[in-house]
Amino acid sequence: MIKNDPIGAAINDYLQGKKNGSITVASNLTEDDIIPVDYLFRQEEEMPELETIALQECRGHVLDVGAGAGCHSLLLQEHGLKVTALDISEGAVEAMRKRGVENVLLADVLTLKDQKYDTLLMLMNGIGIVGDLFGLYRFLVHAKTILNPGGQILLESSDILYMYEQEDGSVLLDLNAGYYGEVEYNMRYKTHESGMFKWLFIDAGLLEQYAEEHGFSMEVLYEGENGNYLAKLVLQE
């Protein structure tokens, strides 16, 4: 197992019977968050409504981007869809193969070519992997090269403006710091540490602007109570 693969190490420990592990997620914005590893192995009945809707919307050949332990890929596979699970974590890819995911790729989505998909699935705030607004621009340009005509992106994100609210209800933003949804994270599990990486949370209005500029129509399919939402971006033919 490579040293800087906290997700992969946690997933493989779980498969070996160490069920009580947790991943610590530190950010430059708020207190540490703790992700129980068993959350990455949730069954269909344990999935939130947003994820259930997203899985029902999948069609054609699905690319599950940032597939983790493969819980979504396995479910789509069971329902008869053709799915490819993609992750940059060597440990996650190894675990998904052990769990029976039929098509698994160890790669960054931006490096993919010579293959077309009908659905790009990006759950658990999956669009965050683009890092920042420039990364979103790059991703949407690339997505058009790997989507079939009329293909779609199903993505989860959140508007985190509420995290900047003051006690009096006002919002305090550093206007010199760039877009407020650009966050830095570090993930830790036992001796494994990712190092700082950028992650994007984007409000639906701004996402729609970017989508339309790149030839996608956008529809919000679900809005949660904490600013999170599910969006469907369809490539216009």
Automatic annotation (TrEMBL):
Organism: Pontibacter populi
The keyword Methyltransferase appears for this protein: yes
Protein name per Swiss-Prot or TrEMBL: Class I SAM-dependent methyltransferase
GO MF annotation list: methyltransferase activity
Keywords on record: Methyltransferase, Transferase
Domain Methyltransferase: 62-151
SUPFAM superfamilies, alphabetized: S-adenosyl-L-methionine-dependent methyltransferases (SSF53335)
Pfam families assigned: Methyltransf_25 (PF13649)
A GO biological-process term: methylation
Domain of life: Bacteria
UniProt lineage: Bacteria, Pseudomonadati, Bacteroidota, Cytophagia, Cytophagales
